[in-house]
Amino acid sequence: WQAVNPADRGPNRLSSHTACVATRLDGLSPDDGPFMLIFGGTDGHAAFSTIWALSLPRLRWARVEPRPAPRPPERLAIPPPRLYHAAVMCRERYMYIFGGAPDPKTTTADDLVYDDLWCFDTQTMCWREVVAGGDRPSKRGSTVLLWAEPFLWLFGGFDGVAE
Predict the structure, then answer these.
(1) What pTM does this model have?
(2) N or C: which end of the chain has fewer CB within 10 A?
(3) What tens digit of pLDDT does each residue of 78-133 get?
């Protein structure tokens, strides 16, 4: 192991966030990639829905600013703040997130837990909520999301009642 100390300031101390690797990010030089993308998490008081990118070759942070969708309805869509969610990068372009909770104190079935699926496109820099066919997975956090072409696999997690 080796300590990594980026030269500039990145996100505050976070826990229960996710990290994925993207080869490119629109608006940032391809020479700065690959990038580690950090999404969501908590500082112990509040949950977040921000994305931070760390240039792995240059060890420089940049806050990623999502854009409105390029086609109607041209609106800025961003997932609600969350922690305990799962994330995976697909096809070197799309970061998917699933589930999680908005509150660090989520521990029971009465607490709000998400069952939504979102996709962030690193080329358009837009979020979109994904509505898939079939039975929707139950709400859960502390789960695993895996990409194995052509499927997203969701495994395990905690819904406040059973693991």
Answers:
(1) 0.92
(2) N
(3) 999 999 999 999 999 999 999 999 987 766 667 889 999 999 999 999 999 998 88
